[in-house]
Amino acid sequence: MESRVDLNYVRNMFSLANKVAIVTGGAGALGQAIAQGLAVHGADVVVTGRTLKTLEPVVKDIEAAGRKALALSCDVAVEKDVEALMRDTLNAFGTVDILVTVAGIAKRFPAEEFPIDEWQQVMDINVRGTFLCCKHVGKIFKEKKKGKIITISSVRAFAGHPGGYAAYGTSKGAVNLLTKQLATEWAKYSINVNSIAPCIFWTPLTQEVLENEQLYKVFMSRIPMGRAALTQDSIGAAVYLASPASDFVTGQILYVDGGTVAG
After folding, report:
1. 249: closest CA among 232, 234, 260, 237?
2. What angle do CA 41, 64, 43 make, to 5 degrees?
3. Could you tell me if residue 174 is inside a domain?
4. Residues annotated catalytic, as ranges
5. How many angstroms separate the CA atoms of 139 and 115, rounded?
6. Among 172, 231, 236, 238, which residue is least crowded by beta carbons within 10 Å?
7. CA nearest 93: which of 144, 15, 41, 21?
8. Could you tell me the CATH number of the domain that includes residue 246?
9. Which 3 state secondary structure label does DSSP give 132?
10. Element holding 21 (H helix, E strand)
11. Which domain holds residue 108?
């Protein structure tokens, strides 16, 4: 077997040129950052959210990077919406190569007081929504015999936390196992399924927690690097897992967490 390195491959191993990506939850801070990162590396990007108006800034960012962008309304927990997302993406671009399932929510309550309807909402969006998007893009990738799926997990899937994460942590634990299950089922079709698992990061949704001095100390005590993540910290992981550089990597949970799960 040839053992020499293909330098042309190496030069282009992080290129996403001529690729089409779908990023759910594109209106959120993490979704925007990942969508921009994929675009800078050459991908055209479809971004989704429940309200089209909230997607306008990220569409402008993608176009400013010189790539095509399409905003589509989609509730990831509704199967007909997800089916329409895939259909509209194919109609617009003719293909899809990458899926990043950023859409998710967090609700925090003490476990003994957790409203069951709110617990179920977390499961519906974080688990059902992730599965539905994977299910329907998986059909496309199976026909193509190729595709990259990146789910979004969390360090909360790795260990408990006294901050009321009975729903969120449980949902992300499910995402981890779903990632591994799909990776093993679909490896024969050359479909890569991996996950990015960040620690808490600065967004408008976490600002209330991170600006609370007591809570901030609790969170930082668990992060050896001593800071919360920035949304841009996950871009490199997303580009790697979407690109040819990760073609032999599947079923992995890539922690972007400042050392949280290491210690």
Report:
1. 237
2. 30
3. yes
4. 168
5. 36
6. 236
7. 21
8. 3.40.50.720
9. helix
10. strand 20-24
11. 7-252
Which strand ranges, in their side-by-side order, compose the sheet holding 20-24? 69-73, 44-49, 20-24, 98-101, 147-152, 191-198, 253-256
Query: Which one-letter amino acid corresponds to residue 203?
Result: T
The whole model's pTM is what? Answer: 0.95
- In the chain, % helix, strand, coil (3-state, to 5) comes to 50, 15, 35
Which pair of structure tokens corresponds to residue 53?
A: 């108006």
The pLDDT profile of the chain, 263 residues, written as one tens digit per residue, is 567 889 989 999 999 999 999 999 999 999 999 999 999 999 999 999 999 999 999 999 999 999 999 999 999 999 999 999 999 999 999 999 999 999 999 999 999 999 999 999 999 999 999 999 999 999 999 999 999 999 999 999 998 888 889 999 999 999 999 999 999 999 999 999 999 999 988 887 788 888 888 888 888 999 999 999 999 999 999 999 999 999 999 999 999 999 999 98
Tell me how many domains the chain contains: 1
Residue 63 lies in a domain: yes
DSSP for 153-182, written as a single string: --GGGTS--TTTBTTHHHHHHHHHHHHHHH
Torsion of CA 177, 181, 184, 188, to 10 degrees: -140
Token look-up 């994460």 returns 165
- Flag whether 229 is in a domain: yes
